[in-house]
């Protein structure tokens, strides 16, 4: 029996969402496509979701967000909104998105931190830049206003907060930008090395 899929309906849950381009084409390698994608994310910010972190990779996007109503609606706004604008503003009839999307529900403040770092470090792992803040199409560049982490997340333990050291971020196997990846990266805490790979992602339609 298939497990019942959790439906996020105005429940204040936070998610990391990944959506790929059709056929994994590097559409967002073009600056005007990437800029329009970022503009679309901010167009729906506040009305459809809170925006905590994002990165626009050549062939996929990753967003850390808290939907105001449902996760499915939030993703529909992002993907559908961009497709509509690409046709109108970029004069493109290309199919933009792969069907569906993957998501991971954030469990607590530690999980939030791990996935936030993962998003920031994605361009570094794909050899698109040396430092996360150098990548222009990411919230790591500090050029964008973001919503703060939700207050309802269970806090990180004091010991972990004091001893956590970034060696990198989680590793995801099923997303590829067509460039070689560096080694998987990890979060190291007082309890030892912990790798929280986004392996719990659920595939959904949008």
Describe the structure.
The chain has 206 residues and is α+β, with helices and mostly antiparallel strands. It has helices at residues 31-44, 71-89, 109-125, 158-163, and strands at 15-20, 49-56, 60-67, 101-105, 165-166, 187-189, 192-194, 202-204. Helix 1 packs across helix 2. The protein has one domain (15-147, 154-196): 2-Layer Sandwich (Alpha-Beta Plaits). The chain is 27% helix and 18% strand. Mean pLDDT is 81; it is low at 1-10 and 158-197.
How would you characterize the largest beta sheet?
5 strands, antiparallel
Count of helical regions? 4
How many angstroms separate the termini? 23 Å
Q: By CATH's scheme, which homologous superfamily applies? A: Transposase IS200-like
Which fold name fills CATH's third level, the topology?
Answer: Alpha-Beta Plaits
Radius of gyration: 17 Å
> Considering DSSP H and I runs of 4 or more, what fraction of the residues is helical?
25-40%
Summed up, what is this model?
The protein is built from 4 helices and 8 strands, in the order E-H-E-E-H-E-H-H-E-E-E-E.
List the helices and strands and how they pair.
Layout: E1 15-20, H1 31-44, E2 49-56, E3 60-67, H2 71-89, E4 101-105, H3 109-125, H4 158-163, E5 165-166, E6 187-189, E7 192-194, E8 202-204
Antiparallel strand pairs: 1-3, 1-4, 2-3, 4-8, 5-6, 6-7
Helix pairs in contact: 1-2
């Amino acid at each position: 029996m298939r497990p019942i899929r959790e439906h996020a309906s105005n429940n204040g849950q936070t998610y990391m969402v990944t959506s790929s381009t059709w056929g994994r084409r590097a559409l967002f390698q073009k600056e005007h496509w990437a800029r329009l994608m970022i503009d679309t994310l901010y167009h729906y910010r506040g009305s459809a979701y809170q925006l905590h972190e994002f990165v626009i990779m050549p062939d996929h996007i990753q967003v850390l967000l808290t939907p105001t109503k449902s996760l499915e609606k939030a993703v529909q706004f992002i993907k559908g909104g961009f497709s509509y604008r690409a046709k109108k503003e970029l004069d493109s009839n290309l199919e933009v998105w792969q069907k569906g999307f993957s998501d991971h529900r954030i469990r607590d403040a530690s999980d939030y931190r791990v996935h936030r770092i993962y998003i920031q470090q994605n361009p570094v792992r794909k050899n698109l830049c040396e430092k996360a803040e150098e990548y222009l199409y990411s919230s790591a560049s500090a050029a964008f206003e973001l919503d703060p982490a939700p207050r309802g997340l269970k806090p990180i333990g004091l010991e972990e907060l004091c001893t956590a050291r970034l060696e990198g971020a989680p590793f995801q196997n099923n997303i590829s930008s067509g460039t070689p990846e560096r080694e998987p990266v990890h979060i190291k805490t007082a309890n030892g090395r912990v790798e929280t790979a986004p392996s719990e992602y659920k595939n959904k339609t949008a």
